[in-house]
Amino acid sequence: MINSVFIGISTLIFVRYLKFQRTVYTDPAVDKKIYRYVYLLSVCLILPSIYFAYDIVVDSAFKRNAKSYLENQFTFEKSKILSANIVRKGGEKKIEVTMIGETLSEDVLSQLKTILPKYGLEDTELKVIQSYRDSSQLNQQSGFSFQNEAGSKIQEEKIHLLENELRILKDKDHLAQSVAKEINVLFPSVDSFSLGDFLVQNVQDFSSSKEVTVLVKWKHQVGSVERKRLELFLKLRLGLENLQVLDL
Predict the structure, then answer these.
(1) How much is the pTM?
(2) So what's the pLDDT on residue 130?
(3) N or C, which end of the chain has less CB nearby within 10 Å?
(4) Which structural domains are found in the chain, ordered by start?
(5) How many CA atoms does the CB half-sphere of 45 hold within 13 Å?
(6) Reading across the β-sheet that carries 190-201, which strands appear in turn?
(7) 158-168 pLDDT tens trace
(8) What stretches pass through the bilayer (predicted)?
(9) Contact 210, 198 (CB under 8 A)
């Protein structure tokens, strides 16, 4: 709404600058009444927008001064800022600081409050919440937290790996069932088969590798041609060139 009024006012000023012919009402009283309403509406919208703009500028300046105050004054060797809350609401101005480490003395707190006006923070309430904790305890807690995060990450990776392996096993089960239906039609002599990865261990250089192997149980004795046909079919169907077909 406010933007629309500003756009209308800027348009009016531009039109007046270019000296376009004005619309003239036959009744001067109506003309005067319309202009009175336009100016009244403009004033009613401009004044609040000026107030809000001023409030935003003051609030930004207050928060900027408060951050500068905290960065420059709360520099203690054995005490650290855990959190800081800067509040400006209505006439209330407050800086609430939560400290951890060595407890600050009353003299130090009094001095911190005295310095507030130097940063443009007059009439600002400073509230310091202190929680004593030895630095070694803090380091131990940080290390414990880091270990927990690392352990949680490793656990997530293991779960992800197991999920992938389970998905692969399900895919293999589905593939085996699909291939079994095709073999039943194309190779009636096959009674059953097993499909899986077999670990091949070399006893010479102690190297090992995995090979996909199919163990076939025939209903009756078949010749080498039938075995070769089945092997070629499985290689094409499974997309595996290094595939071994063995009798069970």
Answers:
(1) 0.43
(2) 84
(3) N
(4) 1-132 (3.30.70.1350), 162-247 (3.30.300.30)
(5) 15
(6) 190-201, 208-218, 243-247
(7) 677 666 655 65
(8) 36-54
(9) yes
Helix/strand/coil for 105? coil
| C-alpha–C-alpha distance, residues 248 and 214, integer Å | 9
Q: Which residue has the tokens 């443009």?
A: 120
What is the pairing mode between strands 208-218 and 92-101? unpaired
Chain centre to alpha carbon of residue 179: 44
C-alpha radius of gyration, the chain, whole number: 41
Edge-to-edge, what's the strand order for the sheet holding 92-101?
79-89, 92-101, 125-131
DSSP code string of 1-46: -HHHHHHHHHHHHHHHHTTPPPP--SSHHHHHHHHHHHHHHHHHHH
Percent of the chain with pLDDT over 70: 77
Residue 40 banded pLDDT, cuts 50, 70, 90: confident
Strand positions, DSSP E, 105-231: 125-131, 190-201, 208-218
The reported pLDDT for the residue numbered 133 is: 52
C-beta of residue 97 within 8 angstroms of C-beta of residue 81: yes
Q: Could you tell me which of 207, 186, 209 has the C-alpha nearest to residue 199?
A: 209
220 token code pair: 């009756």
